[in-house]
UniProtKB/TrEMBL annotation:
Reaction catalysed by this enzyme: 7-carboxy-7-carbaguanine + NH4(+) + 2 ATP = 7-cyano-7-carbaguanine + 2 AMP + 2 diphosphate + 2 H(+)
Function: Catalyzes the ATP-dependent conversion of 7-carboxy-7-deazaguanine (CDG) to 7-cyano-7-deazaguanine (preQ(0)).
Protein name per UniProt: 7-cyano-7-deazaguanine synthase
Binding positions (Zn(2+)): C199, C214, C217, C220
UniProt keywords, alphabetically: ATP-binding, Ligase, Metal-binding, Nucleotide-binding, Queuosine biosynthesis, Zinc
Enzyme class: ligase
Cofactor note: Binds 1 zinc ion per subunit.
Organism in which the protein naturally occurs: Massilia glaciei
EC number per UniProt: 6.3.4.20
Family label: Belongs to the QueC family.
Names of required cofactors: Zn(2+)
Binding residues annotated for ATP, in chain numbering: F11, S12, G13, G14, Q15, D16, S17, T18, T19, C20, V21
One GO molecular-function entry: ATP binding
Pfam families reported for this sequence: QueC
């Protein structure tokens, strides 16, 4: 039976999902995390996950007590059947359908379906994802309507009462930095800046004011602009 005060967070190792873990730790008695290896070009995000989880535990005794098991699942099927800039060594560009070729069709749908399957077995009642319809690249599987429709489908298909939470859905990247500050103060912001990974190209070299990354891909541009706006408001 799913417990309403427990959550499973989709945790990639990026800024958004790390913020979501902190958000969940402030609200639920038990929080577990799940990441997916889907053949992503920026697989370095998976490598930073353990350090981030250790960092979150160190920030608060309460968070340490609430943070439960981490799960890393193989979804390489996604990479084998898709042809995108996130799963192949191709340049980032716009497609004829108006979507960037960083869009991985079905990715979030599969992530949430597999996460619900895991949550069902673990007795976790809430699924938390970092999907956002404000500062994003136009991905249709990040839209609020998509998430709401999927919540209905998952509950019908599993005879469950899952709740899908997307705390970043209507936030700009500036507000996402602010949410992190509200949850864990300057130490959490610094953990996110220094240790998370968002860059689509997997660039991990220089540590910029806003974090690691190439600085030119769409993910880096959003992150850098949001951080600058966050600082401009006197964070």
């Amino acid at each position: 039976m799913q417990q309403a005060d427990t959550a499973l967070v989709l945790f990639s190792g990026g800024q958004d999902s790390t913020t979501c873990v902190a958000w969940a730790l402030e609200r639920f008695a038990r929080v577990e995390t799940v990441g997916f290896d889907y053949g992503q070009r920026h697989a370095v995000e998976l490598a930073v996950r353990p350090r981030l989880l250790a960092g979150l535990r160190a920030l608060s005794p309460e968070w340490d007590a609430r943070l439960g098991a981490d799960h890393l699942l193989d979804l390489s099927l996604i990479g084998s059947i898709s042809d995108t800039a996130l799963t192949s060594e191709v340049a980032i560009s716009m497609q004829e359908n108006g979507l960037p070729n960083t869009f991985v069709p079905g990715r979030n749908l599969m992530f949430l379906t597999v996460a619900a399957t895991l949550a069902y077995r673990r007795g976790l009642g809430v699924l938390v994802g970092g999907m956002c319809e404000t500062d994003f690249s136009g991905y249709p599987d990040c839209r609020d309507d998509t998430i709401k429709a999927l919540q209905v489908a998952l509950n019908l298909g599993m005879a469950s009462r899952f709740r899908l939470e997307t705390p970043l859905m209507w936030l700009t990247k500036k507000q996402t930095w602010q949410l992190a500050h509200a949850a864990g103060g300057a130490p959490l912001v610094e953990l996110i800046r220094a240790d998370t990974h968002t860059c689509y190209l997997g660039e991990r070299g220089t540590l910029h004011a806003w974090g690691h990354g190439c600085g030119t891909c769409p993910a880096c541009e959003l992150r850098a602009r949001g951080h600058a706006e966050y600082l401009a408001e006197g964070a």
